[in-house]
């Protein structure tokens, strides 16, 4: 039996469950770098011209739309691999899964570095998009599923602890990537190739640390002194388990699929182009010479969004333990729709502070949606197959990863082509995002407890004393 096999990672008596969050964070802070990927977009579009400050690239340079495909493909494969390998993750355990995630995600950086050197966009997409995306999917769901099993008494807090790391990945990745590109700017790739190699090596070490620290609870383990509450008639928290194939057939699964898809679509497109968007909406032409948002300031904006993305995952998921998952999503959709509707007005006013504040709140709820959905699934379907069910639901993320950036980039390009100034090219997209959130509000309103015919034969195990 190998060291990566599940039986080798079962926690012994006296092992503290509070060692699981650091293991999860080591992985999620690494793979969360994908949220800071936009700092590479401008340099990637100027590799042949060699001038990142140029208004237009040289003939043969990639366009922003083409470079944006890397982010979309990565998140598509995150969701697709989560759905495809969800059962495998549950069967093999978190250690083997997290090692596989580390090798794929970090190996993707090395392949992408070669693609940058050869100026081969397909190779960069294969590295950071396909290989990196599969690594993202495996690394994303495994710690979450494990934490839910360790913290049945506080599932929202548990998922928030793990997933806030994913949201905060850009807080490290964005300034690190910018600094490394500046340090190695003379490597012939504007520093991008060297940065990919270094970041791949650093993240590999952190992810392997998390993989070998992680443990799973022994069968039947529960926190000492904790007793599951019996399911109330019509209650939203079930004491029964629904297996993954049955859950896939319930209306609740597809309503939650729509909830996640719409919440993610409304945020991911903006997040993927945050650096470029704030530079275009608040350029020197808008604010006056010397007052526009610089590339360094835009990287700071991406980092700030990352802070709120990360903090929102912990704050909102913990809040959902107190007020419920359904009311939490009602807040996301109602407040989010209002803010998206107001964003164009903030831009027209030239109010950078209101623009930044609005997007910080939006990103907190975007992150909160990711952190709250596993606990929502646990409430609806129990803990038996929650990792596999979560994996399938992340197909909504895959779809949103295509739709969101396509909306933002597509409408931007069409608006600019028709003569609309770059600073005003995002207004239509913001109104569409607001409308999507209104639809999401309706989908969440329809969620009801899962019917008895979908329950599995086994209920949540009776509690017995265990070690904290």
UniProtKB/TrEMBL annotation:
Residues forming coiled coils: none
Domain Major facilitator superfamily (MFS) profile as annotated: residue spans: 1-452
Keywords: Membrane, Transmembrane, Transmembrane helix
Listed transmembrane segments: 64-85, 97-116, 122-144, 156-176, 196-214, 253-272, 292-316, 328-346, 352-377, 389-408, 428-447
Domain of life, per lineage: Bacteria
UniProt cross-references to PANTHER family, sorted A to Z: MAJOR FACILITATOR SUPERFAMILY (MFS) PROFILE DOMAIN-CONTAINING PROTEIN-RELATED, MONOCARBOXYLATE TRANSPORTER
Protein name (record): MFS transporter
Source organism of the structure: Deinococcus actinosclerus
């Amino acid at each position: 039996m190998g060291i990566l096999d599940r039986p080798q990672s079962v926690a012994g008596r006296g092992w503290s469950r509070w060692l699981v969050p650091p293991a999860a964070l080591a992985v999620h802070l690494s793979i969360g770098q994908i949220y800071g990927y936009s700092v590479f977009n401008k340099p990637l579009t100027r590799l042949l011209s060699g001038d990142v400050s140029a208004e237009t690239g040289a003939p043969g340079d990639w366009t922003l739309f083409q470079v944006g495909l890397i982010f979309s493909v990565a998140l598509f494969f995150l969701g697709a691999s989560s759905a495809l390998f969800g059962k495998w993750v549950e069967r093999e355990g978190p250690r083997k899964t997290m090692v596989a995630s580390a090798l794929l995600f970090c190996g993707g950086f090395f392949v992408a570095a070669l693609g940058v050197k050869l100026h081969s966009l397909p190779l960069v997409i294969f590295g950071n998009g396909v290989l990196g995306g599969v690594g993202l999917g495996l690394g994303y769901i495994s710690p979450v599923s494990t934490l839910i099993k360790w913290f049945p008494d506080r599932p929202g807090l548990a998922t928030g602890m793990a997933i806030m790391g994913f949201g905060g990945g850009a807080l490290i990745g964005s300034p690190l990537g910018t600094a490394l590109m500046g340090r190695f700017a003379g490597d012939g790739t504007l520093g991008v190739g060297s940065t990919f190699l270094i970041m791949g090596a650093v993240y590999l070490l952190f992810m392997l640390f998390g993989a070998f620290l992680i443990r799973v609870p022994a069968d039947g383990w529960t926190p000492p002194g904790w007793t599951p509450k019996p399911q109330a008639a019509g209650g939203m928290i079930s004491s029964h388990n629904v297996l993954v194939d049955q859950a896939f057939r319930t209306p609740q699964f597809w309503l939650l699929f729509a909830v996640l898809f719409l919440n993610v679509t409304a945020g991911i497109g903006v997040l993927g182009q945050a650096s470029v968007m704030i530079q275009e909406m608040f350029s020197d032409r808008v604010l006056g010479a010397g007052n526009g948002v610089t590339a360094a300031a835009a990287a700071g904006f991406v980092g700030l969004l990352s802070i709120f993305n990360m903090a929102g995952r912990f704050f909102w998921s913990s809040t959902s333990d107190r007020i419920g998952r359904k009311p939490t999503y009602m807040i996301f959709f109602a407040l989010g729709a209002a803010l998206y509707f107001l964003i164009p007005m903030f831009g027209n006013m030239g109010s950078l502070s209101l623009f930044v504040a609005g997007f910080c709140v939006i990103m907190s709820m975007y992150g909160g949606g990711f952190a709250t959905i596993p606990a929502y699934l646990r409430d609806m379907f129990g803990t038996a197959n929650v990792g596999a069910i979560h994996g399938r639901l992340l197909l909504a993320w895959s779809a949103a990863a295509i739709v969101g950036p396509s909306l933002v980039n597509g409408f931007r390009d069409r608006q600019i082509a028709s003569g609309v100034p770059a600073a005003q090219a995002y207004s239509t997209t913001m109104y569409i995002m607001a409308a999507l959130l209104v639809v999401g509000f309706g989908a969440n309103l329809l969620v009801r407890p899962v019917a008895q015919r979908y329950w599995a034969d086994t209920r949540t195990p009776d509690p017995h004393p265990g070690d904290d």
